[in-house]
Amino acid sequence: MRIFVLGAGGTGSLLAELLARQGHTVWCGDRDPDRARRFLGKNSKIEVVEANARNLWSIVRAGRGANLVVNSSPAVYNKIILRAALRLRAHYIDLNAHLSSSPFRPEQFRFHKRFVAKNRVALICAGAAPGLTNLLAHRGAELLDSTESIQIRLFESTESKDPISTWSADVAYDAAISRPRVYRNGRFALARRFDGREKFRFPPPVGETLVYLAAQDEVCMLPYVMPVRDVDAKIGGNDFDRLRRWYRQGRLNRSAGIVRKRFPQTLTPRRVAKLIRQGVLENARFAAAVLVRGTKDDQPLLVRWDANFPTLYQIRQRGLISTPISYATAHLAAIFIKHFPRDLSGVIEPGMLSVETRRAIVVDARSRDFRIALKITKLKKQEDDDF
């Protein structure tokens, strides 16, 4: 395929390289081509053109001739980039939603009829979390006769002396100021930021940590495509703890906007390497757990998936410079593109892919050294009332 990647930052640049290795013709668009080339590296042969995600026609000009538009820009630009993909008559894929038009329904779904009319596919939220987490939730539900609840638990930790942005500043800021969505007893609701404190145990070496409600897209996607009563998402780790501390101190609010000292720009690979050499950045981890509760043959069960991704240290040992979140997201997006459902049309989320495709994606993810483990536990029948 001819693939146009819009947004060549920490995730987009790595994704572009992975797609080029798959044999696709790839070029990138970014409003700062010089900075994008620093992310790609001086030895990269991938072309970079100027493209502003805020401007529809800028995207159309830069992406002309593409079969697939990959949106690796901040989600606030999703609707503009979706319109550009339709103008280009190209398929589309992105990594997350913004939930601006409707707080409980991804804005991408509003484009479903237009993509059906063009006989094109828009695969949305196709990264690690959301993305892989959606697939694991669906797979867990398939193992049950009925599903009561789905819980997403994430761990994001950076061992550094200074704040280091593992996502773009815009994405990190948006996540910090957004109110968490929850799905309780079949209804959506907005929760208080950093509420729902819970002790959660991740597999070693993470172990037990405190997690809090967070604004994750899975909560506003899964109830639309599967019967479930409760869904929530929580995040733990020192990255999230830092945001919670700033919130409690009154340093996070929309009126103040982004404070660059707290939300620095994503570091280029060269800058990350320098911080590692200086001892400022020591390590970083990213892990996800998906817990699905329900019944099978009248027996209450807990289906739990754990996904552990390579740490910063392990990535560095492979001769690469990338944060664990960017590394996991880029690799998962590349796998989704490898199995892209060009025989479908309309806007779909990862769980709407065929069973065979979803299984193939999980198999490929495991082949990238992503440790994905399944555990099924029998629950006492009297716990039914506690779900």
Topology:
Elements: E1 2-6, H1 10-21, E2 25-30, H2 33-40, E3 47-50, H3 56-63, E4 68-71, H4 78-87, E5 91-94, H5 112-117, E6 121-123, H6 132-142, E7 146-160, H7 169-177, E8 181-184, E9 187-190, E10 198-201, E11 208-213, H8 222-225, E12 230-236, H9 238-248, H10 269-278, E13 281-296, E14 299-308, H11 312-317, H12 324-338, E15 346-348, H13 355-367, E16 371-378
Parallel strand pairs: 1-2, 1-4, 2-3, 4-5, 5-6, 6-15, 7-12
Antiparallel strand pairs: 7-13, 8-9, 10-11, 11-12, 13-14, 14-16
Helix pairs in contact: 1-12, 3-4, 6-13
What does this structure look like?
The protein is an alpha/beta fold and 387 residues long. The protein is 32% helix and 27% strand. It contains 13 helices and 16 strands. The chain has helices at 10-21, 33-40, 56-63, 78-87, 112-117, 132-142, 169-177, 222-225, 238-248, 269-278, 312-317, 324-338, 355-367; strands at 2-6, 25-30, 47-50, 68-71, 91-94, 121-123, 146-160, 181-184, 187-190, 198-201, 208-213, 230-236, 281-296, 299-308, 346-348, 371-378. Strands 3-2-1-4-5-6-15 form a seven-stranded parallel sheet, sandwiched between helices. The protein has a seven-stranded mixed sheet with strand order 10-11-12-7-13-14-16. β13 (281-296) and β14 (299-308) form a beta hairpin. The radius of gyration is 20 Å and the shape is globular.
